[in-house]
Amino acid sequence: MNKLYIGNLSPSVTAEDLKQLFGEWKLPLSGQVLLKSGYAFVDFPDQNWAIKAIEALSGKVELHGKVIEVDYSVPKKQR
């Protein structure tokens, strides 16, 4: 799975902030950043890059004063 969930985001975080953060860590995104209030979804070229992003960033990197969470995106269950 190449789509990741980015959580615990400050309301002031922008899509550009996230693109810049992943760029600083040399983690290539493969598509748009879908930003919601307090969380976002990003796509990576393959699973290896997704794993590297989780290992490098989750619980370790601060963005706009909050430590971000990075994990696999889990589809909503249909009712």
Kindly list the characteristics that best describe this protein.
79 residues; alpha+beta; 4-stranded antiparallel β-sheet; two-stranded antiparallel sheet; mRNA binding
Explain how this protein is built.
Strands 2-3-1-6 form a four-stranded antiparallel β-sheet, with helices on one face. A two-stranded antiparallel ribbon has the order 4-5. By secondary structure, the protein is α+β, with helices and mostly antiparallel strands. It has two helices and six strands. It has helices spanning 15-24, 47-57, and strands at 3-7, 34-35, 39-43, 62-63, 66-67, 69-72. Strand 2 (34-35) and strand 3 (39-43) form a beta hairpin.
Elements, N to C (H/E): EHEEHEEE
Which ranges are low-confidence, i.e. pLDDT below 50, for 5 or more consecutive residues? none
Mean pLDDT: 93
Share in β-strands: 25-35%
User: From the helix content, strand content and strand pairing, which structural class follows?
Assistant: alpha+beta
Q: In total, how many beta strands? A: 6
Number of helices: 2
Termini distance?
23 Å
Helical content band: 25-40%
